[in-house]
């Protein structure tokens, strides 16, 4: 074989998208000499650049960048903005950008092949498993890097406190969450006012109001039938308000009989009452998330559970004057936390694979993504918040945004970040969602719900092949 051929292939960029390991393997298979392969290894190794204020992570300005983006309820405009920021920082750089709802299918074979994209929006990935396999790059250098657009601050200083808990494994951070929002219950302000209905501050009050609403001919509730996880979020807010964080921590830590704790059982029973008393819109179980949300917007039900991405996700279908408003989940009798407590969530975790061709570039993209200006722009066109402190300050973006902000302000320190088993044990998440769907269609009762959830938790706890995590109280 002519070693000059290898040089031409590299020069033409025809081998650029293969991983360094794959390039060496293919080169050897083609019969290139040892000296040529040594040159190949040097040519494909990441080229570090001097770290300075303009390039704090030492990005190779000529190295291509590949981004795999999950495009869902928030859209992807904010990621496209960051692409332009990256191109402005490194003129002429090649950026390959893919936005899809099928991130798992796109990413999985790339991880297996050792040539993953440089940065991934990882909501749909099993991040705990990837960390356990050493597939994700650690982020300390990124968090300690200067924040883009906030002079004198490190990136970590610009992030909301406790907004990155689920990205930390054994004291090391393997991703950065971009979005911040609230989970709760939504209604139309004009509908409530016209009917003379007041949003209840207790679960008993919710059931009483549901009976009145049902009598008016309107369904009290709908939910995202094919995705019962939305109602699981309601359940966990009930659990948290009933007993504080203790019950949730026991579930996260796979403790024996954690799902049989009184607070969990009572929350399951509370949601079962909605189904048992026919307070749920008929046919809900067959609807997707957007279909059920459209039914709610069309006036088929009074309430729907969802996160604060709801308005942006349904913006093309919202009737004029609908004025959607957010409220916390009303607590059960004997709750230890007040009605005003809210369930917060973080999302849109961005990760950089450890085997990526351009690890510094992936981290730099994230740094630019989290700039205050990009975060504020995200809030302006999605009417939702980010984990970047103060980025949405002073914005007035309508009833949905304003009601969620008011709820957050009223909650004060009573803010719940949710269970972590969803990030740690995907099989448990899937099982709980399935059983919640069965509970809300009266195919099982609350006792069977907690029994099945506990059985899956016990199965995971006993499986030594699954990496275990611990949540502190």
How big a fraction of the residues is strand?
5-15%
Percent of residues in helices: 40-55%
- Average pLDDT, rounded to a whole number, is 89
- How many domains make up the coordinates? 3
Alpha-carbon Rg, integer = 25 Å
Query: How far from one another are the termini?
Result: 63 Å
Shape: globular
Largest sheet: 10 strands, mixed
Tell me the number of strands.
12
Enter the CATH topology name of the largest domain. D-Maltodextrin-Binding Protein, domain 2
Helices, by number, come to 20
Derived from helix and strand composition plus strand pairing, the structural class reads alpha/beta
Name the CATH class of the largest domain. Alpha Beta
State the fourth-level CATH superfamily of the largest domain. Periplasmic binding protein-like II
Unreliable stretches covering 5 or more consecutive residues: 1-48
Just name the CATH architecture of the largest domain: 3-Layer(aba) Sandwich
Pfam families: SBP_bac_1 (PF01547)
Keywords: Signal, Transport
Main location: periplasm
Protein name: sn-glycerol-3-phosphate-binding periplasmic protein UgpB
Question: Could you describe the 3D structure shown?
Answer:
- The chain is α/β, with parallel strands linked by helices.
- The protein has three domains: 39 residues, no CATH class; 129 residues, 3-Layer(aba) Sandwich (D-Maltodextrin-Binding Protein, domain 2); 226 residues, 3-Layer(aba) Sandwich (D-Maltodextrin-Binding Protein, domain 2), CATH 3.40.190.10.
- Helices cover 44% and strands 13% of the residues.
- The protein contains 20 helices and twelve strands.
- The strands form two sheets. Strands 1, 2, 3, 6, 7, 8, 9, 10, 11 and 12 form a ten-stranded mixed beta sheet that branches. It has a two-stranded antiparallel ribbon with strand order 4-5.
- Helix 2 packs antiparallel against helix 3.
- It is globular.
- The protein starts with a helix and ends in an 11-residue tail after the last helix.
- The N terminus is likely disordered.
- One of its GO terms (cellular component) is periplasmic space.
- This is sn-glycerol-3-phosphate-binding periplasmic protein UgpB.
- It is found in: Periplasm.
